[in-house]
Design brief:
Strand content: 15-25%
Structural class: alpha/beta
Distance between the termini: 37 Å
Shape: globular
Radius of gyration: 19 Å
Largest sheet: 9 strands, mixed
Order of helices and strands: EHEHEHHEHHEHHEHEHHEHEEEH
CATH topology: Inosine-uridine Nucleoside N-ribohydrolase, Chain A
Number of helices: 13
Number of domains: 1
Strand order of the largest sheet: 3-2-1-4-5-6-11-9-10
Amino acid sequence: MLEPAPGADTRWVVVDTDTGLDDAHALLYLLAQPDIEIKGVTAVFGNTTVRQAARNAATVLEVAGRTDVPVYLGAAGPLQGDAVIDTVWHGEDGLGDRGLSTSIPHIQAESAADFLVRIANAHPQRVDLLAIGPLTNLALALELDPEILCKLRSVVIMGGGGPYPPPGGLTLTDSNSNHDRIAAQNVYTAPNIENVVMVGVNVTLRALLDEDAYDRLRRQPGPWATFAAAVLDASNGTYQYLWGRRVSAAHDGLAAVILHRPNLVTKWVEGPVTFTATAGSFAVQVARTYHGDPLTFDTDSGPTIRAATGFDEEEFSRSFLRALMRRDSFGVDDEHAPPAMNDSG
């Protein structure tokens, strides 16, 4: 599903993003990989407005020296209703209001949905899509081409909550699905969903970056690590009010790593997706128990999706931080790469 394409030297990736703090880290991670070629970034509303998301993406690309990567403007709001922007988590500008978003992007004339359809049809089974924002752009692409999912080589979605929790556990919800509930339902219930992977908050909440990670980034020379450190400092500052300490979850970063290195996933679960909507939340879950067994009650049946439920946390921490530090730019080999982070305060 996610293995390198046969005969291809590089993986072609499109990143669909509402470029907030963890989105920026995810994009940096992919830009650091020599075996990944980002063919385009499609912006969507969510963590910030769609135009600000495009500007933030252009800023990350400029930091990485990749202004050649095209940026496409996508949906400014959900399929129905008005857009709700996450200013509490990501600031007014999506990057923590630290003055980091400085680039004026050259926006392509083609819309995000049109671009997704075009590249999927021009290069069938060649392009991986990393969807780390609301699924509105992909839902619009599905309206244009109902077969687009099977034309993409893989679709890795940061969203959903994985399987049902154990007794007494909390049902987890994610902001990407909640931003556009109809788009999420349209994507998760579409035909030909076999190559779609859910990386839900059930696993991303364990992908932690703490103050130790910030200190390492801060000490690393160069604009790449300096930018990554400023992003993490803003994110940790927000999460301290939720968790009582300066540590944040690399939601989108984990999805990017799983797209690149699916072997880091240690456990998967497969089943149809269920949707539970209330006035204030929208839960997207796989109709399986946390052990992977079928539920003991009936649910609406739908296409089967694959969701990550476990991953190598130590190797994720090591490889993700190494990419954010851009250690290979300074002649540091794997033997001297930073050790894994821990989640101690």
